[in-house]
Amino acid sequence: MRVRLVAIVMTRQYLRGEVLVLLSRLEAAAPCRESAAALSPLRHQAETLPLGALPAVLKHALDQAEAWCWSSLGDDPELFQRECVIAAELYEFGLCSGLLAPEDHAAGDTD
Q: Are 63 and 106 in contact, with CB atoms under 8 Å apart?
């Protein structure tokens, strides 16, 4: 029984840690310092709120990433690519971890 409890705690720590890593990568791809600072509350929530809050954190991060992608689309192709890559990684992790469902993708999706 103790081994199972350790595995559950480890899985929760992994999920939280991976979300934090992805948020850090998104922050590094931010178009400006103010945009990066907007992620600070999301990182704090991912660190401190119960595991059940991670889906909402991921959804907000994806919304932010989508907004950044749209804003950099015509102005900075390299930044656009970096933002899209991390947004895709956030979404893929959310799906694979069970934190997100396919219908959780932003309404602006056109495919």
A: yes
